[in-house]
């Protein structure tokens, strides 16, 4: 007996002629034919398609068990792997044994019926939704994209740095933060001024969840040259929209001796590499998304890969938008931040492919971005993609301590808090640049999902706080 | 001009004869010879060794800049890559240009002098310590181990599941948890009984940081068959020891249709694969650890890989310990949990290689572990390694709902809270098993570090709360 995955069985490759194999999984659909014959489609998550197991009345448990199977039951099927008569699959299994490891209690009320469910309903049964075609496919694509991120960056000589999740500084002021405490909130310790005595808290001071690992990872870039952080990131903004999550994964590469153009090159190589991995390794899942979720999903990725990104200066982008003749909801003028409607116009209508907008006004960008020689823009970039708008934001960092200090004053940041960050400019400073990419937003884009909650494994249910 | 990493330059492979290359990095050490000749060792983090850049008085900035270089300065060196006359390295660069991107302010007080620093001191300058030999090596080994984890599991057909970090359930009661809130603690909202009104908090209920993704990942194992979670995990236990962290990374594979022996096999393949990757890909860094941090570090990994793990039943292990004639600090009797001294005796003295202890008394193990037929042990295992003790803990899960319910009653767990977990037993239950591995503990073992705080990128300093 050779145990194989459904993927291996469907490929037929591992089975010698007439060899018995065993597959293990869950009944996806089943059909009983007349005269003691059942067709049981078994899925184990290894690929999109289930394998058909043909069970006959010859099986010793045919009447007692096989006939009582329903969608969702756990089974172990052993039999000969033979070319299939049915259309759409190359191989099927003629069962000589079909063991049932677990039936479904009350099949009629089992939440995952073999029919279309609303996405809203599936979010409420998040622990069961990986059993659907859609969430099986999302899970596999997610894995391919996440491991591609590591593979691509490793091939380019990057090191993965696990920057701290628990932080005692407000980082870049990038968003509202979650506070962390082990104090008894019903009975808070007080200092002699009547305030909360944070010295009694776990870390002896106030602590929060990180909103970005970028500043920390810069410290490693100043020794290891090419580094990235890739981990969960937290924003306590009202997350009840289809575009934001309180908890999401973010990848942030940071490169020493790099300028804005270098990092735009990296962003292009990076996104194209991830999409190529999905098209190569998850063709079956992408075919499903293309057919059932977002027509054109595959062509969108292929087009993304096929052409070089366009690069436009922010100042030129403003002129293009002003001359477009389009009526935008948000007015366009030099100095405003681009809204999604502007970003999509640039990528979709003006250029027709991904575009990197570079050199934004310094007022609308973070303190650590490098001031350009014009004195009014910083070396920041956003990668805008057709169908979604901004997908990557990056910048060359201000490596000159005197300039950084002026920007920190401008943003009313406490120099003492950031003194370690200023050290990086005191001791062997070098030009450096990096970008940040919210992973779930990219996954939504690849799969054509409408709600970002469907790009994370556990929204709402099953002990997860996300909603 | 071809930009190459120090690693590529030292390998010499990419440079044609007489070709000019450019390396970029930081001065590690330097030496001025008589007669206008400087030897500047430049490191960029790509490998353990720096490359020697030979600078002569012919350089236009020799007097003005090169002679003022000190350890830590940022430089860009261009020149011919030639076989080195010096011992210990194959190639050096004869500089035709040596650009300084950043000097070191006050070289005499620069924290990272080219000398031995105490580990305690380096924890206080965590943002600069990657510039040392030791932490450069730790960073590279960490990267190799972490990416090996993904590669090995991907090759075995596993999918990476990002289980929630923010949770609303107390998981397995595995440890004290950090509470998370966006409420104004100085002014907490009250419910009509005078208690804290959690409905007003961000998620509308109490929220915590996860102590384990295992229960969540089981839901995915029941659809995708082979899955793992690998991410930061949090324990609000007093972490001020050399062995515990408040924030650490944990990998938890979970396999459907697997029993305790299957998961012990996986643990063996997994650990050996990680160590083999380190020995293959980080020979230079391991040579350093072997010479300077823990003599025998390499042999320890080689021995670990060379032999099959031993397997011992817990009950037999107790007998072995009792008959050992050793005086243990903690008394040995059937029913007690093994202490590190017991674990190390078994692995180091009794067996002399890694040993898997299996089938522990049910009273000392978690509620989700599968009760054995003897009614008094559960299908749990610990992998014990010479030199450290327990390194992996795992179990077959209780897949029978009636048994699980009895265990939950025994542990006074609320069935309503875990109803989603019970669903996994109601709907197509299958045997399954998994294990958990604390990543930093493994890194400490590989590198021979004495304190786990040296296995994380940012302890204490630079905005990290860890200490």
UniProtKB/TrEMBL annotation, chains A, B:
<comment type="subunit">
    <text>Homodimer.</text>
</comment>
<dbReference type="GO" id="GO:0006421">
    <property type="term" value="P:asparaginyl-tRNA aminoacylation"/>
</dbReference>
<dbReference type="InterPro" id="IPR004365">
    <property type="entry name" value="NA-bd_OB_tRNA"/>
</dbReference>
<protein>
    <recommendedName>
        <fullName>Asparagine--tRNA ligase</fullName>
        <ecNumber>6.1.1.22</ecNumber>
    </recommendedName>
</protein>
<feature type="domain" description="Aminoacyl-transfer RNA synthetases class-II family profile">
    <location>
        <begin position="140"/>
        <end position="457"/>
    </location>
</feature>
<keyword id="KW-0436">Ligase</keyword>
<dbReference type="GO" id="GO:0004816">
    <property type="term" value="F:asparagine-tRNA ligase activity"/>
</dbReference>
<dbReference type="InterPro" id="IPR045864">
    <property type="entry name" value="aa-tRNA-synth_II/BPL/LPL"/>
</dbReference>
<comment type="similarity">
    <text>Belongs to the class-II aminoacyl-tRNA synthetase family.</text>
</comment>
<dbReference type="GO" id="GO:0005524">
    <property type="term" value="F:ATP binding"/>
</dbReference>
<keyword id="KW-0963">Cytoplasm</keyword>
<dbReference type="InterPro" id="IPR006195">
    <property type="entry name" value="aa-tRNA-synth_II"/>
</dbReference>
<dbReference type="GO" id="GO:0005737">
    <property type="term" value="C:cytoplasm"/>
</dbReference>
<keyword id="KW-0030">Aminoacyl-tRNA synthetase</keyword>
<dbReference type="Pfam" id="PF00152">
    <property type="entry name" value="tRNA-synt_2"/>
</dbReference>
<dbReference type="InterPro" id="IPR004522">
    <property type="entry name" value="Asn-tRNA-ligase"/>
</dbReference>
<dbReference type="Pfam" id="PF01336">
    <property type="entry name" value="tRNA_anti-codon"/>
</dbReference>
<keyword id="KW-0067">ATP-binding</keyword>
<keyword id="KW-0547">Nucleotide-binding</keyword>
<dbReference type="InterPro" id="IPR002312">
    <property type="entry name" value="Asp/Asn-tRNA-synth_IIb"/>
</dbReference>
<dbReference type="InterPro" id="IPR012340">
    <property type="entry name" value="NA-bd_OB-fold"/>
</dbReference>
<dbReference type="GO" id="GO:0003676">
    <property type="term" value="F:nucleic acid binding"/>
</dbReference>
<keyword id="KW-0648">Protein biosynthesis</keyword>
<dbReference type="InterPro" id="IPR004364">
    <property type="entry name" value="Aa-tRNA-synt_II"/>
</dbReference>
